[in-house]
Each structure stands twice: as structure tokens, then as C-alpha cells.
């Protein structure tokens, strides 16, 4: 064989080639740059373009920040002091951005409410916290309401008593007939609210004294209002959304039709029209003479809005569960609510967590729309500042500040959702 | 007798079965729910009737025929302040549709570009695209709209600066960006333009015919015809020829400066541009995420299998990856378009006269008919959303996996 090989091939190298040098910088920074930034002609062009964009942005931003002014009383003073940003406006108006027109001697109240929010949320967000802390979570709405709106402690305590009474009614009847117990407790709450609450509040107000200075809803604004609207609507919308999703998946035709109608209607109209309903229309639909707080009306409508979106997300989770889970629950002899509570919901909610957090972030951002119905959320606060002759013409500083706040809170929420997704991922991938 | 006790004694229907028998319980629950809902709606309507009667108002839509008395600066169809509220509503609706269509087109372009760039293997481009997506997604759309409006008013030069030469027009003196709006050329149709348009329509029909023929040819012989180049040629060459032969009947009339402002040309208001830009950039960030998720959802094995069959990379993208990615991309895309249309109602904040600005704001405040206006506003938006989702679902059915 070797002969034929030598004969048929014209050239065979007999000496060894000198070893070539190792390829230049196949490790380290140069390799990284070559692979990630200049791997092809198109990539090189894109890299240069991106560098140009970054350079332009930095060229504008850096001197703007570097020459910024923090001490001035008007825009013209700012312009004299420096060529850059005029952050003096934020230094002067920060109380309005955070609290709206809340009385300045009472700032400790919203701050305390905000600080207390963390122990209240901890048992829900992190499962390492002892579950007894949930008790504080249940009390938190009443404490928060009292701290922010003020007035006598009697009102919140009376409402709390009503809830406790309803719970006692439920506990005594639940052993005999769960459905009747539920209806009875709802009836107890309604009766308490309509007939007893007022007297109880007055009586308790006598006991507790005048309490804190009352703050009108119109004076609540800024990030405080955003937080109130966002957190209250989110916590109310989740249970409502789950019920709507269950209704939409239900075999009961009429209930299904009602839920589908509600969800599709709410999802089909812009939030701003619902806010119009809250601000001008809702009073028409209530018995003559009923007036209640604009913040409460807005919360009701935003809750309905968020619930419809949440319902669709939860429905996705329900639909993604294998049929076998429902059948397994049935074969264990669990009734509908037991199956939902113990088998279906824990899995369906786990699947839908990213969607739920997305709805929450969307809702949180959408609370800015209340500035259109002239409430003083952060964007609403910007308007009077722009109209002020001292600060007329300022733009980036104000909106940038508000945008930064929203970016930080929304971004951290989405990071939390990633953490939760990983924590709850129990299947093997 | 003992045999009889085995079977259930037929006692007929008892009332307690309505609660304890699962066969009847569902009916009971549904009827109770229906009664509750009907009573609730009845209560609301009753309250509304009482309240309206007390306020001395009635419920009718006659106000739509009354003279509106307010001006709308951005309009597609003829309108002046002597026309009716109904006409103003129609102008508003068309403005809503205008910004929605423009926004849907640009947000798709921005979103697809950014979604693809986020998957780029170029580190710096990928990071820039990420900054864009996270930045726009995490800040309220209303803030973007108001901020863009502020920039549109503040940054561009005043029209007077064009006279003194401090500012100049762009694109061969055809576009002027001022702080009062953007002036673009107006398309002028003179006699004979119908022929050019007719030729254009004919060539579009010819393109569809050619594509059909090319597909048939490929299925029959396996030969691939250059569809793209022929289509482009068919689209442009006959129309340009017709335009030249007829002596340029379709022309552009540039805006030019006269007196204190620009005349001729089309004046696009700041509010329209700001709303359009802000909505496209904001929705584009969401579209980018969907596009990225859709492309990532196609498993790598698909493109590898196609490559091992010897298909070229560009055709792998067109024939293997994109059709599968579309199935993931289309459903959230529909809801993005719906959200953009609904978010266009925020035009109210910057004074763009869309449906919310006319019917939901000025007409509502002038006539004092809050109930009618808000109900009508909601109904129109509901119809818009439902039609978008109907069209979207129809398209989705055409691209989704056909299981046989």
C-alpha cells in the first residue's frame, strides 16, 4: 500500500515545519473584546455606533450633573449659579413630592406607616418569618388608616370589632354548615357597618379621646398617594381576581357569563374612563345624599380594573394545570373549595406569579393617571411647580426625579418576582 | 319488603335537595347569583334615575346634535366650531384611530429591532437594548407622554428662528421641526394622478400574482424564483414610469416660511408627535420583550436541524425559526396593540384632541351630560378593543400550529 501511496501522490513533506507562534491573545480582555464587540463587520459597526450613542449621552449628562445647583430659590438664581441641572427645585419641593399637602408637623405619621409596612409584609413575602406575625399583618390596615387619616381611634377600632364579630359568627357556624356560616358572617359585617358601626365609633371615641389630627383626603398626595392607591388596590384585587378567574373557569353557566362579561368589559375600556366614573359618575349610582371620599372611590375602581387583569393571569395558571390534578382532588373526595384551596390554587398561583407581579407593576404605574382627575400624585405635583413663576421652564429635573422613583420601585418588584420564581421552582429542570 | 328497602324510596322532589343534592345545588347557586346581580343592577339604575330626576336631568343623546362651539386643531376631516358635538366626537375618534395606527406601526418596528438587538452577541449593543427595555417598561407611560410633550415644546427652535437663519429645515428643506409642531410636505394630487395610483394598485395585484406563481413553480420544480427583487421592481418601476410619463401629477408641496409661521405643507401638532413617540417607545419596550421571548422559545435544535439539512442561515430564519416564533409572539402582540390604543386616551394630559379629549372632556364639561358622555366613551373604546382582539384572533388562528 505504501508504495502505491508514494507513487500516486506528487509531493510528500519530509521535514517538519517550524512551530507557528501561539494565536495572539486567545485569552483575557483582547479575546473578549474581539469575540463580543468586533466578531464581524456588522458587529463592529454596531459597536462603534453604540459607543457614539453612549458618548453623546454622557457628553450631555456629565456636565449637567457636574454643574448642578442645589441651593437656589428660583430657576433664574440657578442659571446664575451654574450651567447644569437645577436640583434646587427638588430640595425646595421634596415634601410635596413625598407627602402632597400633608400638614408638615405630621410627617412622622406616614413615615411610621411606611416603616410598619415592612413587618406587615414580611410574613407574606418571606416564609422564614414566624407565621404568628400574620396577626400584625391583619391589624395593619386599621393602624395604617388611623395613622394616615387621623381622627379618633374609635372609628378603626369599631370597624375592627365588626370584623371580629363576623369572624366569631363564622367560627361558631362553620362546623354545621360552611356555606351558611360564610353568608351569616357577610350579613354580620353588613349589619354592623350599616347600623352599629356609627354608634360604636362614637362610644369608643369617648373612651379613646380625640386622637390624632384629622387629615383631609385632598391633602394626601405625592408618593404617599401612589403607595396608598397601589398597595390597597393590589391587596384587594388579588382575592377578587382569583374569584373572578374561578368563576370564569366554572361549569355554572350563569356565573361564568357574569364573570366573562365583567372581565371583558373592564379590560376593554381605558383606565381613564373608569377614573371618570369614580370622579363624576359614581355619585349618581349611589343612594341620594351618599358622599364618600374621592380616594376611596378611586381605590374601588382601580381595584376592579386590576382584578379583571389578575383574573386573566390566574386563569392562565388554572388552564396550565394538568387535568389529572383536578381529577386527583376529586378522587380523594375533596369538595370544590377544599380542592381549590389545597390542590389547585397553590400550583396555579405558582405558575402565574410572573404575570401577577407584572399586573402589580402595571397597576402601580397606572396610579399616575389620577393626576388627570386632579389628584396630587407625583405627576400631579409637578403641574403646580411648572405653573409657579419661580420655576417656570424647568423640565428634566422634575420628571427625572419622578421617573427615578418609579424605576427603582418597579425594577425592584420585578427582581423580587424573579427571586420568587426561582424559590418556587420545585420541578427538576 | 326487604327487597324494596334496597332501592331508594321515591319520595318525589324535596326542597332540601336544592341545597344538599349536588345535582340541583348548582342550579340553586346560579339562580341566587343571577338574582343578586339583577337586584344589584336594578338598585344602581334605580339610584341613577332618582338622582337624575332630583338634579332635573334626563337621559338622552340629543346633545350630540347641538352646536359644539369649540375648535379642534388637529383634524383629519373637515370641522369647525359651528359643527355639532356628534361631528366633534367623530373627529376625536378619527384622531384616536390615527395615533393608534401610527403607534402600532412604529412600536412594532422599534420593538422587533430592540428585541433582536437584545439577543445580539455584541455585548455593548445587548446592554444598550436592555437599558432601553428596562428603562421604558418601569416608568409610567403618562410620565413619558408628558415629558415628551415638554421636550417638544422646549427643545426645538421657534419658527421665527428659521427666518433669521438660526435654525434650518431638514431633508432638503422639506421638514421643519419647530416648537409649535412639525411641518412636513403635503402630497398634491393633480389631474392624471388617478392613473398613477391605478398603476400602483395594478402592480400590487401583480406582485401577489407573481408570488403565487413563484410558490407554484417552487412546489412543482423546486426552482426558487427571486421573489423579493421582482416584487420591489414591480412595486416601484411601473409607478415611477407612469409618474414620469404623465408629467409628475403627484407632487410634494414643501412647507415654507412666510410672515410669522410656516404655510403650506402639513402641520403635525406637537401633541400628536409627542403622544405618538411616547406611546411607540413605551409599547416598543414591551414588544421587544415579547419578540425576545418568542425567538428564545424556538429550541436551538430546530435551527441546528435546519442547518444540518444544508439550509442557508437567512432561509433558516425565514422558514424555520420565525414561523415558530410567531406563534409565541402574536397573542401578546395583540394585547400590546390593545394597550396602545387604550393608552392613547392619555392624550387628555397634553391636549391632543382624541376621543377622550373631545367627547370625554370638552363635550362632557360643556353639556354637563356626564352620564351619557362617559357611557358612550366606554362603549366606543370597548368596540375598538373588541375589534382589535377579533382581528388579532383571526390572524392568530392563521399562524398557529395546525394539528392534523
TrEMBL record, chain A:
Superkingdom: Bacteria
PROSITE patterns: ABC_TM1 (PS50928)
Pfam families: BPD_transp_1
Topology term for the membrane: Multi-pass membrane protein
The keyword Magnesium appears for this protein: no
Main subcellular location of this protein, as a coarse class: membrane
Keyword terms: Cell membrane, Membrane, Transmembrane, Transmembrane helix, Transport
Transmembrane spans: 41-66, 107-126, 133-149, 155-173, 180-200, 220-246, 258-282, 294-314, 351-373, 393-413
GO MF annotation, one: transmembrane transporter activity
SUPFAM superfamilies per the UniProt record, alphabetical: MetI-like
Location within or outside the cell: Cell inner membrane; Cell membrane
GO CC annotations on file: ATP-binding cassette (ABC) transporter complex
Membrane as UniProt keyword: yes
GO annotation (BP), single: amino acid transport
Residue ranges occupied by any ABC transmembrane type-1 domain in the UniProt entry: 223-417
Stated family: Belongs to the binding-protein-dependent transport system permease family. HisMQ subfamily.
Xref: PANTHER family: INNER MEMBRANE AMINO-ACID ABC TRANSPORTER PERMEASE PROTEIN YHDY, MEMBRANE COMPONENT OF AMINO ACID ABC TRANSPORTER
Protein name per UniProt: General L-amino acid transport system permease protein
Automatic annotation (TrEMBL), chain B:
Pfam families: BPD_transp_1
Molecular-function GO terms, alphabetical: transmembrane transporter activity
Signal sequence bounds: none
Biological process according to GO: amino acid transport
Alphabetical list of SUPFAM superfamilies matching this protein: MetI-like (SSF161098)
Gene3D superfamilies found in the cross-reference section: MetI-like
Subcellular location(s) per record: Cell inner membrane; Cell membrane
GO cellular component, one term: ATP-binding cassette (ABC) transporter complex
Membrane topology: Multi-pass membrane protein
Entry keywords, A to Z: Amino-acid transport, Cell membrane, Membrane, Transmembrane, Transmembrane helix, Transport
Keyword flag Translocase: no
Spans traversing the lipid bilayer: 24-45, 93-117, 138-155, 194-214, 226-252, 272-295, 374-395
Protein family per UniProt: Belongs to the binding-protein-dependent transport system permease family. HisMQ subfamily.
Protein name from the UniProt record: General L-amino acid transport system permease protein
Record organism: Pontivivens marinum
Amino acid at each position: 500500500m505504501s508504495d502505491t501511496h508514494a507513487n500516486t501522490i506528487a509531493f510528500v513533506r519530509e521535514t517538519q515545519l517550524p512551530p507557528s507562534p501561539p494565536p495572539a491573545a486567545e485569552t483575557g480582555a483582547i479575546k473578549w473584546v474581539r469575540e463580543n464587540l468586533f466578531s464581524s463587520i456588522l458587529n463592529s459597526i454596531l459597536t462603534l455606533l453604540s459607543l457614539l450613542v453612549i458618548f453623546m449621552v454622557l457628553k450631555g449628562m456629565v456636565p449637567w450633573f457636574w454643574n448642578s445647583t442645589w441651593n437656589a430659590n428660583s430657576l433664574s438664581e440657578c442659571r446664575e449659579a451654574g450651567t447644569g441641572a437645577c436640583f434646587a427645585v427638588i430640595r425646595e419641593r421634596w415634601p410635596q413630592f413625598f407627602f402632597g399637602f400633608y400638614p408638615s408637623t405630621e410627617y412622622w405619621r406616614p413615615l411610621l406607616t411606611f416603616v410598619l409596612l415592612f413587618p406587615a409584609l414580611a410574613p407574606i413575602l418571606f416564609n422564614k418569618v414566624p407565621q404568628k406575625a400574620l396577626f400584625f399583618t391583619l391589624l395593619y390596615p386599621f393602624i395604617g388608616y388611623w395613622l394616615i387619616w387621623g381622627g379618633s381611634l374609635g372609628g378603626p377600632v369599631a370597624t375592627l370589632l365588626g370584623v371580629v364579630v363576623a369572624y366569631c359568627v363564622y367560627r361558631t357556624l362553620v362546623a354545621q354548615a360552611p356555606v351558611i356560616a360564610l353568608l351569616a358572617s357577610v350579613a354580620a359585617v353588613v349589619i354592623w357597618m350599616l347600623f352599629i358601626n356609627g354608634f360604636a365609633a362614637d362610644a369608643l371615641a369617648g373612651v379613646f379621646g380625640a386622637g390624632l389630627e384629622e387629615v383631609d383626603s385632598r391633602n394626601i398626595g405625592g408618593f404617599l398617594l401612589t403607595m396608598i392607591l397601589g398597595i390597597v388596590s393590589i391587596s384587594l384585587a388579588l382575592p377578587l381576581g382569583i374569584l373572578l378567574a374561578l368563576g370564569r373557569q366554572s361549569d355554572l353557566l350563569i356565573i361564568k357569563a357574569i364573570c366573562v362579561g365583567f372581565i371583558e368589559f373592564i379590560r376593554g375600556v381605558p383606565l381613564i374612563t373608569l377614573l371618570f366614573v369614580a370622579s363624576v359618575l359614581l355619585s349618581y349610582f349611589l343612594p341620594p345624599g351618599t358622599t364618600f371620599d374621592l380616594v376611596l372611590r378611586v381605590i374601588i375602581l382601580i381595584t376592579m380594573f386590576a382584578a379583571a387583569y389578575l383574573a386573566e393571569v390566574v386563569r392562565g395558571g388554572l388552564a396550565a394545570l394538568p387535568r389529572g390534578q383536578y381529577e386527583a382532588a376529586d378522587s380523594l373526595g375533596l369538595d370544590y373549595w377544599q380542592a381549590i384551596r389545597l390542590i389547585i390554587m397553590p400550583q396555579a398561583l405558582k405558575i402565574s406569579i410572573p404575570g401577577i407581579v407584572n399586573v402589580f407593576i402595571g397597576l402601580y404605574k397606572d396610579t399616575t393617571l389620577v393626576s388627570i382627575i386632579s389628584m396630587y400624585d407625583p405627576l400631579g405635583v409637578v403641574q403646580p411647580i411648572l405653573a409657579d413663576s419661580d420655576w417656570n421652564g424647568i423640565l428634566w429635573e422634575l420628571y427625572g426625579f419622578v421617573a427615578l422613583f418609579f424605576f427603582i420601585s418597579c425594577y425592584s418588584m420585578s427582581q423580587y418576582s424573579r427571586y420568587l420564581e426561582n424559590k418556587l421552582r420545585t420541578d427538576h429542570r | 319488603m326487604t327487597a324494596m328497602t334496597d332501592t331508594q324510596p321515591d319520595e318525589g322532589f324535596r326542597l332540601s335537595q336544592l341545597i344538599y343534592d349536588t345535582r340541583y345545588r348548582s342550579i340553586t347557586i346560579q339562580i341566587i347569583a343571577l338574582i343578586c346581580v339583577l337586584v344589584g343592577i336594578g338598585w344602581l339604575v334605580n339610584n341613577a334615575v332618582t338622582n337624575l330626576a332630583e338634579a332635573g336631568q334626563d337621559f338622552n343623546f340629543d346633545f350630540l346634535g347641538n352646536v359644539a362651539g369649540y375648535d379642534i386643531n388637529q383634524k383629519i376631516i373637515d370641522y369647525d366650531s359651528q359643527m355639532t358635538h356628534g361631528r366633534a366626537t367623530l373627529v376625536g375618534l378619527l384622531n384616536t384611530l390615527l395615533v393608534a395606527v401610527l403607534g402600532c406601526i412604529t412600536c412594532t418596528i422599534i420593538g422587533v429591532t430592540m428585541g433582536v438587538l437584545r439577543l445580539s452577541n455584541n455585548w455593548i449593543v445587548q446592554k444598550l437594548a436592555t437599558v432601553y427595555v428596562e428603562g421604558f417598561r418601569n416608568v409610567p407611560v403618562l410620565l413619558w407622554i408628558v415629558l415628551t410633550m415638554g421636550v417638544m415644546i422646549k427643545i426645538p427652535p421657534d419658527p421665527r428662528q428659521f427666518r433669521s437663519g438660526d435654525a434650518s429645515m431638514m431633508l432638503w428643506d422639506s421638514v421643519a421641526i419647530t416648537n409649535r409642531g412639525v411641518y412636513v410636505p403635503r402630497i398634491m394630487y393633480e389631474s392624471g394622478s388617478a392613473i398613477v395610483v391605478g398603476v400602483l394598485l395594478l402592480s400590487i395585484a401583480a406582485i401577489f400574482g407573481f408570488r403565487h406563481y413563484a410558490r407554484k413553480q417552487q412546489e412543482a420544480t423546486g426552482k426558487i424564483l427571486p421573489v423579493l427583487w421582482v416584487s420591489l421592481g414591480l412595486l416601484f418601476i411601473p409607478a415611477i414610469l407612469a409618474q414620469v410619463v404623465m408629467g409628475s401629477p403627484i407632487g410634494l408641496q414643501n412647507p415654507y416660511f412666510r410672515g410669522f409661521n410656516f404655510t403650506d405643507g402639513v402641520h403635525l401638532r406637537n401633541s400628536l408627535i409627542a403622544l405618538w413617540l411616547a406611546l411607540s417607545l413605551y409599547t416598543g419596550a414591551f414588544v421587544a420583550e415579547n419578540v425576545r421571548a418568542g425567538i428564545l422559545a424556538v429550541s436551538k435544535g430546530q435551527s441546528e436541524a435546519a442547518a444540518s439539512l444544508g439550509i442557508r442561515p437567512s432561509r433558516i430564519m425565514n422558514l424555520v425559526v420565525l414561523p415558530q416564533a410567531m406563534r409565541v409572539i402574536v397573542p401578546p402582540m395583540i394585547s400590546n396593540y390593545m394597550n396602545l390604543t387604550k393608552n392613547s386616551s392619555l392624550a387628555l394630559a397634553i391636549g391632543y384632541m382624541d376621543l377622550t379629549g373631545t367627547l370625554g372632556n370638552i363635550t362632557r364639561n360643556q353639556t354637563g351630560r356626564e352620564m351619557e358622555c362617559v357611557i358612550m366613551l366606554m362603549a366606543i373604546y370597548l368596540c375598538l378593543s373588541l375589534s382589535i382582539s377579533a382581528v388579532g384572533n383571526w390572524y392568530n388562528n392563521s399562524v398557529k400550529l395546525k394539528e392534523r
